[in-house]
Amino acid sequence: MNCAPAALKSVDVCKPFSPREVIARVRAVFRRSGTTIDAPAALLQFGRLDIDEAAREARVDGVDIRLKPREFALLLELATNVGIALSRERLLERVWGFDVDGDERTVDVHVRRSRAKIEEEAKLPPMVQTIHGYGYKFVRT
Under 8 Å CB-to-CB from 127, ≥6 apart: which residues? Predict the structure, then answer.
C-alpha cells in the first residue's frame, strides 16, 4: 500500500503509528456510522466524596476540591477499580497513555498531591492505600 496522503483511505493507517491514533481513527469511523462506543459518564459516590466523570470534578460535601487533570484521571482510574491493587506501570499506561516517557515515581507524586487535597484539606479518611513495591488500591471507608 502506498502511504502518500492522496492514496490514504479513511481506515488506512501507515506504520509507524501510535495506539492513540488507531483509537482515534476507530472512534471516528464509529462516529461517522452513527454508532457510539463511549459508556455514559459515571457519578461515583464514596460517603462524602463524589467523583463526577462527566463534569471532571471530585467534590466533598458538594464542594469541588480542584484536582488537576492528571490527579482527577488518576483518582477516577483508582475509584473505578475499588479494592483492586493497580501497579504503577498500569496506572502510567491508563492515565498518562501508552507513549509516556515518565518514571513510575510520577504516579507517587500525583497520588501524594491527590491525597493532600482529599484526605488532609477535605478531612476525609484515607481512601488510597499504598501497596509497597507494587502500586495503589482505592478502598471504601
Answer: 46, 49, 118, 119, 138, 139, 140, 141
CB 127 within 8 A of CB 118: yes
User: What Rg, from alpha-carbon coordinates, does the chain have?
Assistant: 19
Instruction: Say if residues 83 and 141 touch (Cβ distance below 8 Å).
Output: no
The predicted-structure confidence for 70-81, as pLDDT tens digits, reads as follows: 999 999 999 999
What are the strands, taking DSSP E only, across the chain?
43-46, 49-52, 57-60, 63-64, 86-87, 128-131, 135-138
Output the pTM of the full model.
0.70
Dig out the grid coordinates for 98 from the structure: 501508552
Helix residue ranges per DSSP H, 34-133? 69-79, 88-91, 105-115
**DSSP single-letter state for residue 4:** S
CA–CA separation, 30 and 110 (whole Å): 34
Instruction: Identify residue 120 by its one-letter amino acid code.
Output: E
